[in-house]
Amino acid sequence: MALYELVVFDPSAPVLDPMWRQGMFVIPFITRLGITNSWGGWSITRGTITNSGIWSYESVAGAHIVFFGLCFFAAIWHWIYWNLEIFCDECTRKPSLDLLKIFGIHLFLSGVACFGLTCEVIE
Predict the structure, then answer these.
(1) How far apart are CA 92 and CA 41, in angstroms?
(2) Cβ-Cβ contacts under 8 Å for 117 (sequence gap 6 or more)
(3) Which has the closest alpha carbon to 40: 50, 32, 29?
(4) In the chain, N or C terminus with fewer CB closer than 10 Å?
(5) C-alpha distance from residue 108 to each of 26, 102, 104, 111, 112 (Å)
(6) Is the pTM of this model over 0.85?
(7) Which residues contact 108 (CB under 8 A, 6 or more apart)?
(8) Cα angle at 21 between 16 and 26, to 5 degrees?
(9) What residue spans define the domains of the chain?
């Protein structure tokens, strides 16, 4: 959706024809997060830029596509390996899940991913 909006968005007149008047839905939310530059050389703050850095509208859309793919493959992995021996109690051989440990592992991995994506080198 964000990539489609970037294709049809016209940044030439942000005052008279702002993004919400052009029917944009996702780009205003990305802008509220602090993304103002595009790899196309335009800025939502009416300036021409030469170096937009890593985080631009296009990179945010690309990161969402990549993380969707990772979530899809994680869902497939969890579906295939649903009956691993690690999920069974050793004494009773019945399925038992330590949900706090599972939640902690997933929370840690998502935290590492978010921290890795938001850290920028200050020049």
Answers:
(1) 63
(2) 63
(3) 50
(4) C
(5) 28, 10, 6, 5, 6
(6) no
(7) none
(8) 125
(9) 2-118
Helices (H), 1-123: 2-8, 27-32, 57-80, 99-118
Residue 85 φ/ψ region, left for φ over 0, alpha for ψ in the -120 to 50 degree band, beta for the rest: alpha
Tokens 């702002």 belong to 18
Q: Is 80 helix (H, G, I), strand (E, B) or coil?
A: helix
Q: Is the sign of the CA dihedral 5, 8, 13, 18 positive or negative? A: negative
- pLDDT by residue for the chain (123 residues), tens only, comes to 888 888 888 877 767 778 777 888 888 888 888 888 888 888 888 777 777 778 888 988 998 899 899 889 988 988 887 767 767 777 887 777 778 888 888 889 888 877 766 655 555
Tokens found for residue 15: 């005052």
